[in-house]
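Per your request, structure below.
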């Protein structure tokens, strides 16, 4: 599983201040930290950046690339001018992996401008399944949006291999059925768009539950999505357990999650408390158990 580090983000008080004050030190420290933690990409999230994004994003990218040259970057802002200005100055990553534009929505006013741009500069992009009416209602609406955007991209000369499909993760405590829908959609991608990659904003699933429950939700859903074919997630570099699972170092966790998905976990009383918690979390995500903030205590 490829990991896209999420914490070089304007919503961080420290990083947001560094962006505003053009202070390179915290930005470079965070980029080096993410590299040390095993991230495969570094996401640079400016948010809307309406006022000065066209100047700020290139500066941040150049600041990061002064200290990290061998990791590709994900350019994350809704400001199209900022993306375009950055693509003019960004240096290729030394490991040869393409940079990533995060993201292009399935809205004509967005993709008709952005797709030719990424085609011109030869970078990959995340195809975000957010359409004219917002979040798709189910996997079939996701599929229809996916076909629309990928067809347009293919016509512009972009092969599926340079497209990363994001079906959108929703919070478990308010939109649990959408988590199942995303898994069903994920299974469809290989047949619908051969060669396309996939990713998601993983931590959205735990946006709302108490902080101490966020890691196990993120970790469990990542394994479930990977089993459905997902190849990458945008993740928290501070979550060492998630990174270990993603890099194949906790096969016991993967195995018990798979068994639980299949209804084959059996009597879990002999399992460690850690593995029992993963069983309970799978059941919550699949809707077998009603969500509550105390599901691990039951």
């Amino acid at each position: 599983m490829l990991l896209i580090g999420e914490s070089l983000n304007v919503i961080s008080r420290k990083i947001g201040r560094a962006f505003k004050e053009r202070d390179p030190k915290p930005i470079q420290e965070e980029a080096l930290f993410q590299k040390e933690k095993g991230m495969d990409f570094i996401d640079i999230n400016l948010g809307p950046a309406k006022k000065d994004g066209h100047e700020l994003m290139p500066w941040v990218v150049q600041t990061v690339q002064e200290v990290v040259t061998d990791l590709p970057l994900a350019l994350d802002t809704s400001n199209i001018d900022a993306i375009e200005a950055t693509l003019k100055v960004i240096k290729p990553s030394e490991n040869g992996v393409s940079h990533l534009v995060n993201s292009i929505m399935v809205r004509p006013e967005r993709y008709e401008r952005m797709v030719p741009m990424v085609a011109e500069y030869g970078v990959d992009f995340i195809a975000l399944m957010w359409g004219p009416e917002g979040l798709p209602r189910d996997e079939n609406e996701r599929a229809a949006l996916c076909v629309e955007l990928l067809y347009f991209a293919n016509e512009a000369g972009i092969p599926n291999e340079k497209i990363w499909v994001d079906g959108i993760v929703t919070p478990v405590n308010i939109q649990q059925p959408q988590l199942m829908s995303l898994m069903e959609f994920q299974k469809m991608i290989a047949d619908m768009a051969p060669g396309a990659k996939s990713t998601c904003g993983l931590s959205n699933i735990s946006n709302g539950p108490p902080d101490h429950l966020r890691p196990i939700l993120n970790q469990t859903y990542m394994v479930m999505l990977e089993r459905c074919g997902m190849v990458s997630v945008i993740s928290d570099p501070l979550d060492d357990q998630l990174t270990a699972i993603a890099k194949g170092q906790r096969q016991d966790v993967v195995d018990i999650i798979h068994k639980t998905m299949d209804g084959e976990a059996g009597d879990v009383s002999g399992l460690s408390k850690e593995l029992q918690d993963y069983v309970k979390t799978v059941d919550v995500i699949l809707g077998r158990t009603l969500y509550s903030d105390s599901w691990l205590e039951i």
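The chain has one domain: 2-239.

Regards,
D.
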